[in-house]
Amino acid sequence: MTQDKRLTTTAGAPISDNQNALSAGPRGPLLMQDYQLLEKLAHQNRERIPERTVHAKGWGAYGTFTVTNDITQYSRAKIFEAVGKTTDLVARFSTVAGEQGAADAERDVRGFAVKFYTEEGNWDMVGNNTPVFFIRDPYKFPDFIHTQKRHPRTNLRSATAMWDFWSLSPESLHQVTILMSDRGLPTDVRHINGYGSHTYSFINARGERFWVKFHFKTMQGHRHWTNEQAQEVVGRTRESTQEDLYSAIDTGNFPKWRLCIQVMPELDAEKTPYNPFDLTKVWPHADYPLIEVGIMELNRNPENYFAEIEQVAFSPSNVVPGIGFSPDKMLQARLFSYADAHRYRLGTHYEALPVNAPKCPVHHYHKDGPMRFFANNPQPDAYYEPNSFGGPKEDPEVAEPPLRISGNADRFDHRAGNDDYKQPGDLFRLMTSEQQGRLMDNIAAAMEGVPVDIIKRQIVHFYRADAAYGEGLAHRMGVDMTDIVQYSSAE
Ligand code: HEM
Description:
The structure is a single chain. The protein is an alpha+beta fold. The protein contains 13 helices and 10 strands. Strands 1, 2, 3, 4, 5, 6, 7, 8, 9 and 10 form a 10-stranded antiparallel beta sheet that branches. Strand 6 and strand 7 form a beta hairpin. Helix 10 packs across helix 12 (467-477). The protein is globular and about 80 Å long. Its cofactor is heme. It is an enzyme of class 1 (oxidoreductase).
């Protein structure tokens, strides 16, 4: 047999029999020296890694980004350098709450994460299909996620926990309204928008800073399922999104998104009536219109799902010169959380894995640990910094301009003076009456079995956003409107 067809051990030695274990006599027992059997069993025991603590169920593919409009006046990032320039990328979409084996057609926010392999490092845009989020202070994130995951005793998801938390956190109303609307149950991920959601910053070649929001507009249009349709789909297949994305790309039907930005001059942030770094708010498009930047296309399926999609590691901390952070408290916490999760989930040198490795030179002085399979820097004596042996050095040219901040260090009440009702109310008023009806039906269904005090507390929030929103829910839940009106005006 030719060597390239021969089955081998992990050490490369040829295997003579892969069907029959080595035993003492035909009936056994087995011999300890059958290291090939031991190797097989030991590897099987190590085939699973911790699933992502959130966004465990996901679907991914490779693609390209092509610049269609010159935005160099806002950002010096190489990816935007010239119209027509293309950059390779990998994208992963996900649901938030379900485990790795969860059904795809569930009502949930969809994750929308893209890693752009730029010449000056990887830029990760780790967003969702919603422009806002449930909370604005990261201190509350683990509590919020606990309400989305399983109850410790019943091991079931708990509608009571969800509505208890949301009704005690009025800042969630905007995102809850989106989640319960048509957009909360997309048919697949080709038919969703993506949003960076947070405010990020752009720095141009003159060292000027702008605040920016990212929008990926689906070019396939939006498609949704009703709860009833989704139930029928899940009864047929739990993998509807995986099937849709994989087969679309496999048959050359490549999905595309138009990347657009909203840009705010740095000093405007001191003038807007809302906090532009509040993740529960959108920026009005009338004040900050969308500017097209380019087209993202997905055009290649991964060869190995585990190696390339399960092991892909996205982090909002992965920015490149010309793209930076903002004071958004949620974003600041995420800058810590993701790389920490990756070191736990994948191991110290996870960025050397092919799907995570930048496609530009990488020079750092981090040393050993799991997965240290990459070579030394070309200068073997330069293994610390500073050194006299020609090792890599910092480049002051990529420094950002200083950021002006002010105020005392304190635990500021993030709800003080914040209007949690106007934007969700505007969104409700923007919907057709059919859309409003479906939104309220979905909420009523999701509230089934929740204690009445919690339901009333939540209906007060709907009522404050729009009287018809509150009344519609009170009617559906059999709650007396006078209770709601009294409670709402008592506070
Ligand atoms: C995944 C933390 C808010 C989008 C994750 C993971 C963690 C995490 C630990 C798993 C990472 C991994 O194992 O690879 C947090 C914290 C948040 C937060 C602490 C708030 C303080 C958000 C927000 C968005 C978002 C606001 C969207 C705007 C995502 C996405 C993924 C993810 C898309 C999956 C990435 C992938 O496909 O690998 N988050 N998250 N998260 N998060 Fe968040």
